[in-house]
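#dry-run=false #mode=assembly
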Amino acid sequence: MSIIKNKFIFLTIAALLVVASIVIVAVKGLNIGIEFTGGSVVEVSYDERPDTETINQALASYDFRPSVQAFGEEGYIIRTRELSEADRGVLLAALNIDEQAPQVERLNTVGPSIGKEVRSKAFLAIALVVVAIILYIAFVFRKVSPGIEEDAEKIPSSWKYGFIAILALLHDIAIPIGVFALFQIEISSLFVVGLLSILGLSVNDTIVVFDRIRENLTTNKEEKTKESFAATVGRALRQTMARSINTSLTLLIVLGALLAVGPVAIQELALVLLIGTFVGTYSSIFIASPLLVLWNKGEKA
Amino acid sequence: MEDMKQIYIRIISLLILAGAVALGWFVLAQPEAKPFSLGLDLSGGTHLEYEAQLEGIPAEDHRSSMVALRDVIERRVNLFGVAEPNVQTETARLGQEERVFRLIVELPGVTDVEEAVAMIGETPLLEFKAQNPELSEEEFQTALNQQTQALLLDNIKASNPELADSIVSQQDEAVSEPFISTPLTGAYLDGAQMQLTQPTPGQMAGQPYIVLNFDREGGKLFEEITAANVGKIIAIYLDGAPISTPVVQQKITGGEATITGSFTLDEARQLEGRLNAGALPVPIALEPATQSIGPSLGAESVEAGIYAGIIGFIIVAAFLILYYRIPGIIAVVALVVYTVVMLSLFKFIPVTLTAAGIAGFVISLGMAVDANILIFERAKEELAKGATIYDAMRIGFSRAWLSIRDGNISSIMSAAIIFMLSSSLIKGFALTFGIGVIVSMVTAITMTRWFLLSIAGKKSPQWLRTLFTSGLNK
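#status=ok
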């Protein structure tokens, strides 16, 4: 295993994936759900489902700006502009097709001001969590910061651990967003829940590897072993490899089960988490640790 | 000494196990005893948001107005017999200065938004109206009849629009208002109580009536109005519709009035409730943030979620046991206990379970598994160095503890920040995730340690060592 030696290959791959995600989001845009933009969603089901064209025609004479999507085996999800109470009645009446009244499974209306608020709250929460994590990691790794004395150039300051954990985190968040943009999957509040979970998992993963580096540095000092920082990091990666793989494997199993047979309502959440867990494990091994070595070297020069 | 210590550990481990089995039996195996509180997305129901219009109310009274508002709405909702409604207030900031005061009403089981909105009503208003003095007694009777018919018609319209249409054609005379407003409103009402008449001769036994108590000012107003309307009707309106039309027998002083009428016990009780609920302290407007979820969608979600959970758990358990052998078995036991404790907490706190909340729980479960894996991998390293099984488990735990602690604290911190800042859906996630991580530190992780130490012997023959290591190692 020579992850540290081949660090440029892995970092290039990661950088390419992140850039690709950004490009996809820029080109295709995100399919943002009504929770953030305002509007209404109606989910209906029929005993005998009419085809999409029929539904579209039935709604064509109104100004609801509908987008109709077949859902499950007998249902439709219809997204419209924000509906008033009166509009809802008109819409549901229009959906009576061939004397067949649909069953309303879900009806959700969000005004634009609430959408804006939900959006800003989500951003604020993510931003504050990021700051808190940098501070916390810098704090718990403070003991391995170089002292004033001899080691000054050999190991990175604890702030770097925090910042690199966040870099890995941004990578972990960028890729699921890119995938959702690529396939134009709707982004709802549950997607934000997914991103927040990735935040937690990814940091946890990175901390485990960093913690091993910290421990190795401490034992080296105690035993007065001479080892380059790159070698110490490489050793920590080897030591935590089995754990990293097994942990993400168990999570992937559970999430895979949720995606395959779980509730339709949380499938997109399971998908975000699945992608996030995978890239989160990848990033703590192939991105965070090599970056730590690289940044440390950069400082020496 | 060491031996004694291990005996204590064994006793404690057994007690923990017995406790978990008891908890599982008493809390989870009797579902009817105390059901889980399911969120609207899982149980079906309606979520409504109202914006309170606090213009004209001094800022320092905003909070108390909102509390009063919540109480009134809560009383109203309770009148309709919805199981476990949830009424709460929320303050949101839009930009720097602007603040929005919101009232959130969640009605489980009510899946018709229109019905729910009607239940809560826009601004309910209690008014006392006097007979219109411009009308002669005869004209008044006609107007009253017309009003009664119009009300009847509204009721029919709600249930059978076609029938109502055919009736409308028969009624096209101009309608004059039988009653005019007086200054007396629900704002002056202190309270209302339903009482039953004493069975006296000439009176029906146990007839219910309502006693109204006005405050001082209201009492004065009531006195003036009754003095001016002896022998006439004072109509009590709720939300613009007359709910009671008593005839004034004499001028009433003392700020107390009774409403007699031919109501049934239930009707009288409902009236009492509605009068006590009274008028809202501040007007509210339905915000365009409503959501209703059909019951079948919720039930399907729960079923599919449980199914996925069981499949996931079985595969993970199989993996842990096959790969980690004896420690794997212990981890599975610890995780089952952890799950039992979490589910019991969900029932007893109680935590309202939503799809997002369950996701938070699953993630915390994942982190508990991770903590166990960390411990086993470290213990394995110690075994490889030649430590006894007991020492390997002990040292493995203490080495792994630092990363478990750091990872968990950063998770708890994130959960707390998210909980404080986000909207209710995401709050549910943060809550179960946060509780999950904290509980896993005291159950899953600590328990694995106790169990491992209690079964690890001082002697470690090779075959036993093999059962304590993992993967492809000997």
